[in-house]
Every structure is written in C-alpha cells, then in structure tokens.
Amino acid sequence: MPAVVIDGEKLTLGDVERVAVKGAPLRLSARAVQKMRGSRHLVEKVLSSKEMVYGINTGFGRLCQVVIPRGQIQRLQRNLVVSHAAGVGRPLPSELVRALMLLRANVLAKGYSGVRPEVVEILVAMLNAKVHPVVPEQGSVGASGDLAPLSHVALALIGKGQVTYRGKRMPAARALKMTGLAPLKLQAKEGLALLNGTQAMTALGCLTLLRAELLAKTADISGALSLEALLGTMASFHRRLHDVRPHRGQRNSARNLRFLMRGSQIIASHRDCPRVQDAYSLRCMPQVHGAARDTFRHVREVLAVEVNSATDNPLVFPEEKLIISGGNFHGQPVAVAMDALGMGLCSLANISERRIARLMDDNVSQLPAFLSSKPGLNSGFMMAQTTAAALVSENKVLAHPASVDSIPTSANQEDYVSMGMTAGRKALQILENAEMVVGIELLCAAQGVDLRSPLKPGRGTLAAHRAIRKHISRLDEDRILAPDLERAAALVREGEALRAVERTVGKLL
C-alpha cells in the first residue's frame, strides 16, 4: 500500500481512512521538516532572550503569569503531559487512536507549532510500527483542545503510560524498546504543542462521517427494497419533480432510487392500482435522505479544513518573527458539525424505522402480519421492529446538541468550552444505532420482497436482495433473530450491500 505523505497542507479524509483503518504507512515530507526547523529556530531564539512568551517559558492556563527558569523548561513540559493525562472511561478503539495520532502529526508538520522534527518523526514511527497509546474516551471539554486524550498520546511518546502492541496491552517504554524507538525527551513548548488541538474530536468526526456517507447510500437501497415490498410507486422520484426543488442531496437520492428500481416487475405489477399517494416514509425519501446528505456534505467541508489547520497555541510564524497566542485550539467549529452529523444520522434512522413498521402492519402492507407466512404460530419480525424502535428513541436522546453547553474550567481562564469530544462520541453512537436500524430494514424488506415472489424487484434492489440472502436466509419459521440483525448491520457497516448494488447499476451518488 502506498505511503501517505504528510506536510500539514494536503491531508484528505481518504488519507485518514487509509492510515487509521487500512493501516497504510506514513511518511513525513522533506518540506515539512524544513518548515518545522524554521519555527523551532524562533522558539530557541526566545529561550535565549529574557522575553516572556506563553507556553515557552511560562506556566499554562490560569498559571500563565508564572515565569519558568530556563533550567526547568524540560521539567515543565514533562509535568504538563503527566498532569494532563487525566482521561477516564473505556479506551478509544485503535483506529480512532491512529486517526488521532495522524492528525496531530499532520498539524505539527504544518510548521507553526515550534517543535523539532523529531516530535513528528516518533509519531510517524509509532504509527508505522502499530504502537497505539491507550487513550480513555472521556475527559475532554474541547476548549484548549482535547487536552486529556492528547496527553495520553504524548505520554506514550515519552515512554510513560500504556500502549497496545501486537494485540497486547503493555507499558509504553517496553513497546518502544521492542520496536527500536527511543522515548522522546521533550524540549521547550513541545509538550504543550502535543496537547493543544482538536485532533481527538476531529478523528472521531472523520471516521464517523465516512461511515455516515456510506450509510446514506445504503439507506436509499433499504428504502427502495421497502417501497417495492410495500407496492409503492416510483412517481414521486420523477426527475422533473426534483429539478424544481434542486437541493443536491434530494436530487441525488431521487436519482439513486430511480436507478435501483429500474426494471422492477413488482412496481410494474400494480401500475394501474387505485392508490394515489404513498405514505411520507416512502414518498419523501429523497427529501429526508437528501437533507441528511446535505448535512454530511457540510460536515465534510468543516473537517476538510480542520485536518490541515494549525490548532496549537501559541503559534509560531518565523517569516514575520511572530509568536501569537490565540484560540485556534477551541473546538466549536467541529463540535457544531458533530452535532449536525448526529442529527442527520437520526433522521435516516427515524424514517427507516417507520418503513420497517409499515412492513410489519398487515393493515397497510398487504403482506402477512410481521412478514411471517404463518403469523400467530410465528411472531416473524415483530421484535426486529421493536429493536429498531428502541434504537431510534435512544438516538433522539443522544441528538441533543452538546455544543450548546459549556462549563468553566482552569479557574475560569477557560470559561467557554465546546464539548466537541462529547458531540463526536454521541455522533458515533448514533451512527452505530442507525447502521443497525438500516440493517434491520434491509432484512425485513428482503423478506417482504420474497413474499412478492415470483415477481422480481429492480436491477439494483435485486442485487441487494442477493447480497442479503448470501448471508441470511429467509425466515420461514421463528428463530433467534439477534445473529441475523448483527449480520445485517455488518452488511451496512462494511459496505457489502452497497458494493453488490454498484457492481450491477454503477456508482450511487
């Protein structure tokens, strides 16, 4: 796999996925090394003078007025890292830790943090060796950056704390020795540079968004299968209808739905039926799915900027010989985007659950109750819909925006915080619930299509149906549903259902 080269300027969300999820190697560009040396020279110049500059020769936060003697600068940086490693809760998954490390390395490589190239080089080396710091998920308020999560990463760089390596949890010092790496000895400003930034919430955002974009396309697939099973009409997806309300997401979703059901015998079988309109959960799929897509596109724009942004404090500008203290570490842009991401995901799951509910109800579906060929003796998919209902209701609680909250920290120096890490964690949980709900819809809609046999669905939906049946058999007699639901969610999460469709009808938008 080709190496991803970082320079602080051109990292993409696709690069994040390649390194964090697929394990692509990482390399630091020569130009970035030069830029870092330039800003480091200015930091060294400040150290040689008697000038007081925050983060270089002062205390931190509320203690910024305390001047630190030069002989204690290295101790100051070490103390900062160990004192701020106060995270609690479950460890973040390794792919999120990898994304976090990559993003921090890229920001430092931008050349405005005043650190030596060695700081980025050890991050790169640990990623390539797959040495992953143990980073607790709770403890960040997203103001001076994600201080606690980033501190646990910095701990590992200096040979402290815990890491995972080759599937085992062990002291960082041991893993570094096993991989031939020497612990980093922090110099002036380097501890602070490793801690200040939005990389934990941004890592969560990147990996959650990539799965959300996959989910949006798969929701079109599950919705199309449901519409066919429920004998719905394709009239509401006509291109002219959406051209006169040309929201990009809406038009793309409508186009997908037309492509998916093209050639459907089921749709053709009831073309002259007396039903005039379908329920909103069927008729308004482009409008609802499309709004989520447009939200995800906005979130992508925010994250694309953030992954290549300097979020340290203070920032070092060697060309102008300036060191400026500001607030680029504040997570509000990402926090608001993560809340929006969660709300978009909620709507996809909510409307999916409503379609599942219609499939269960023989009063509206014209199918056997709960999609069972022998209802009464068998309960069919009754509890699958109940599970979906539980998940969407949980999502509604989780969707309350974290970014509207704030709580003062650091003796009121940090008196307005973003709660971005909380917003990101909630968005990920909403995503996981939504993937399960759409998986349940795929499963139930496939059963509904089976019950319309011998009529066949459209080319795209038939491909999806075959992908489902490759892993999950038709439900003829009651069985334990939990394994089926997990397999269905995996078809969504891992993109297998989408790939099967796109091999048949081409790329969905």
Structure description:
The protein has helices at residues 13-20, 30-48, 73-84, 94-109, 117-129, 147-157, 172-178, 190-195, 199-229, 239-243, 248-260, 265-269, 280-283, 285-306, 332-360, 362-365, 382-398, 420-450, 459-471, 482-493, 496-505; strands spanning 4-6, 26-28, 88-91, 132-133, 136-138, 162-165, 168-171, 315-317, 322-324. By secondary structure, it is mainly alpha-helical. The chain has two domains: 4-197, Fumarase C, Chain B, domain 1; 205-308 and 342-505, Fumarase/aspartase (Central domain) (Fumarase C, Chain A, domain 2, Up-down Bundle), CATH 1.20.200.10. Strands 4-6-7 form a three-stranded antiparallel beta sheet. A two-stranded parallel sheet has the order 1-2. The two termini are 27 Å apart. The mean pLDDT is 94.
Find the CATH topology of the largest domain.
Fumarase C, Chain A, domain 2
Q: Give a short account of the largest sheet.
A: 3 strands, antiparallel
Distance between the termini: 27 Å
- Give the name of the CATH superfamily of the largest domain: Fumarase/aspartase (Central domain)
Strand arrangement within the widest β-sheet reads 4-6-7
Radius of gyration: 26 Å
* Tertiary shape: elongated
Measured as a percent range, the helix fraction is 55-70%
Averaged pLDDT, please? 94
Uncertain segments: none
Total beta strand runs: 9
> How much strand content do the residues show?
5-15%
| CATH A-level architecture of the largest domain | Up-down Bundle
Please trace the helix and strand order, writing H or E for each element. EHEHHEHHEEHEEHHHHHHHHEEHHHHHHH
The helix-and-strand class reads: mainly alpha
CATH top level class name of the largest domain: Mainly Alpha
Oligomer: single chain
Helical stretch tally: 21
The total number of structural domains is: 2
